[in-house]
Amino acid sequence: MADVKKIVLAYSGGLDTSIILKWLQETYQADVVAFVADVGQGEETEPARQKAVDTGACAVHVADLREEFVRDYVFPAMKANALYEGRYYLGTSVARPLIAKAQIDVLRQEGADAVSHGATGKGNDQVRFELTYYALEPNVTIIAPWRDPKWQMHGRNEMIAYAEKHGIPVPVTQKKPYSMDRNLLHLSFEGGILEDPWAEPPADMFVLTQDPRNAPDEPTYVEVDFEEGTPVAVDGERLTPAALLARLNAVAAANGVGRVDLVENRFVGMKSRGVYETPGGTVLYAAHRAVESITMDREVMLLRDQASPKIAQLIYNGFWFSPEMRVMMDFVDSTQENVTGTARIRLYKGNCDVVGRKAPKGLYDEKISSFEEDQGAYQQSDAGAFIKLNALRLRVRKNAGL
Q1: Taking burial as the number of CB atoms within 10 A of a residue's CB, which of 217, 226, 286, 376 is the most buried?
Q2: Does residue 98 sit in the same domain as residue 216?
Q3: Do 270 and 115 meet the contact criterion of CB atoms below 8 Å apart?
Q4: Is 265:93 a contact under the CB 8 Å cutoff?
Q5: Total domains present in the chain
């Protein structure tokens, strides 16, 4: 890579990218452009920009991607009911393709020779970043320090020592050696003291959510309005996508909602323990499913639900910009045409419960569903023949001695 003179680094200001910026300069004798993506980490953005400048970046690009992130990534994943292994709301996974796409834009603007990231050779993020790079810029040069033979640091303790040697402040300490990734959808924790799957996460680790035991003693109710599967309002107030998710984050976090402790299967083959805080996302998924329950046809819902695990897997594994993802999301969009209505959610000490749902054109018909006197919309006597026909193959098997 002797011809590499300028590198665009996906920079967060965390432990890995803080030292990688300096390492790239020393190792490749190249200019490093720091790209900071604002996907909702809030107060971390400006310190990250300043730290990149102080560390020697030749330029710093800060992109406000919050609205795009929620509108074009979080909401589509939610409409697909995409939960990886049934529990993970894909907070990190769904942000990486957007960050990588914007990074490629900076590569083109700067006329740079290569892109780089701080993902380790054991993790999923290396795959997510690089699949996106290649999908959008097929011949791009990628520098992945953790896989680079010139990289001599093999653990977080060595990285912390490198940072101290070069006077680079980092958020990770020997006392709290776990890494964090934050955006509008979630905050994740992994590594360090969490690598023992038997160990309970320390109470002082959590940042967003109130300890459910200390949450308010009275429940909080919140209503979410949807139009064609997309959230548009909270408690009757229409909000932009980013503002809507931020509002739900605040109210759900105050009630201790959204903590997940999960051992998941990484794409590269190993199991990994992650702890997540996803307050607003937990509410959105529950509310969306509630509106679907009274607006979506049974067989359409079944088909969508069969697709959901595959879509979650594609997002988790980094295939956001794949042709199969595009086809499946087109299908999901078609299932959402009638998903318009409101869900009422009760938040109480870590619990997120649906307690009401309504829709202007719902498929729920009280005249049909009521256990009270029949009103002519459903003849109970029809059920006998229906059951007997469905039992035919079972009766034939039994009569045949099977």
Answers
A1: 226
A2: no
A3: no
A4: no
A5: 2
Q: What does the pLDDT look like over 56-89, one tens digit per residue?
A: 999 999 999 999 999 999 999 999 999 999 999 9
- With b meaning 16 or more CB within 10 Å and e meaning fewer, what string describes 185-194? bbbbbbbbeb
Task: For the chain, report the end-to-end CA distance as a whole number of angstroms.
Answer: 69
> Residue 270's domain is classified under what CATH number?
3.90.1260.10
Q: State yes or no: is 273 an active-site residue.
A: no
- Burial-class residue 164 by CB neighbours within 10 Å (0-12, 13-18, 19+): exposed
* Same-domain status, 249 and 151: no
What gap in Å lies between CA 271 and CA 211, rounded to an integer? Answer: 27
Contact predicate 98/65, CB 8 Å: yes
Which of 49, 66, 96, 128 does the annotation list as catalytic? 96
Please identify which of the residues 12, 16, 31, 93 carries the catalytic annotation. 16
Q: Do 165 and 211 sit in the same domain of this protein?
A: no
In a shared domain, residues 90 and 158: yes
Q: 251 — phi, psi (to 5°)?
A: -70, -40
Residue owning tokens 């990588």: 100
| Whether residue 347 sits in one domain with residue 293 | yes
- Bridge partner list, 32: 7
Does residue 238 share a domain with residue 103?
A: no
User: Which pLDDT score, from 0 to 100, does residue 346 have?
Assistant: 98
Examine the fold and report which residue of 172, 200, 232 is the final residue of a domain before the chain moves on. 172
Domain limits for position 86: 6-172
Rounded to whole angstroms, the Cα distance separating 13 from 168 reads 10
Q: Are residues 129 and 204 in the same domain?
A: no
Whether residue 366 is predicted with pLDDT greater than 70 in this model: the reply is yes
Place of tokens 């994943």: 77
In a domain, 394, yes or no: no
> Has 125 been annotated as catalytic?
yes
Antiparallel, parallel or unpaired: β 220-227 and 341-348: antiparallel
Q: Contact 124/132 with Cβ under 8 angstroms?
A: no
Is residue 76 within 8 A of residue 307, CB to CB? The reply is no
Task: Return the amino acid letter for 398.
Answer: K
| CATH code of the domain containing 99 | 3.40.50.620
Tell me if 352 is assigned to some domain. Answer: yes
16 is known as an active-site residue = yes
Catalytic-labelled residue, pool 31, 38, 113, 125: 125
Q: Which two tokens stand for residue 63?
A: 């992109």
Q: What is the pLDDT of residues 182-230, one digit of tens each?
A: 999 999 999 888 999 999 999 999 999 999 999 999 999 999 999 999 9
